[in-house]
TrEMBL record:
It catalyses: [protein]-peptidylproline (omega=180) = [protein]-peptidylproline (omega=0). Its main location: cytoplasm. It is an enzyme of class 5 (isomerase). InterPro entries: PPIase_dom_sf, PPIase_PpiC, PPIase_PpiC_CS, PpiC/parvulin_rotamase. Residues 1-90 form the PpiC domain. This is Peptidyl-prolyl cis-trans isomerase C. The keyword Nucleotide-binding does not apply. Its EC number is 5.2.1.8. It is found in: Cytoplasm.
Length: 92
């Protein structure tokens, strides 16, 4: 079964997610921003989701983790929880 290693930042608004994405693009550390701003419990671990398998995450995030380019910050991606920035390290 497929698996991937990813991290994410979850915030309430699209504007917040877009602003954080710009800060990451400007060189700020994803994990530091995740610890400070993410509303997901994974934020305490720098946004680290660990290894995930298809179907473990909501569909919109699953699509990014298993189909989009690696090592790129994707988003903002809307889900019922808010807006996400997602970065995938590897997938098997």
């Amino acid at each position: 079964m497929a698996k991937a290693m990813a991290r994410h930042i979850l915030v309430k608004t699209e504007a917040e997610a877009a602003a954080l994405k710009k800060r990451i693009a400007a060189g700020e550390a994803f994990d530091v921003l995740a610890r400070k701003y993410s509303t997901c419990p994974s934020g305490k671990k720098g946004g680290d989701l660990g290894e995930v398998r298809p179907g473990q995450m909501v569909r919109s995030i699953d699509q990014v983790i298993f189909k989009k380019e690696l090592r790129t910050v994707h988003g903002p991606i809307k889900s019922q929880f808010g807006y996400h920035l997602v970065q995938v390290f590897y997938r098997d």
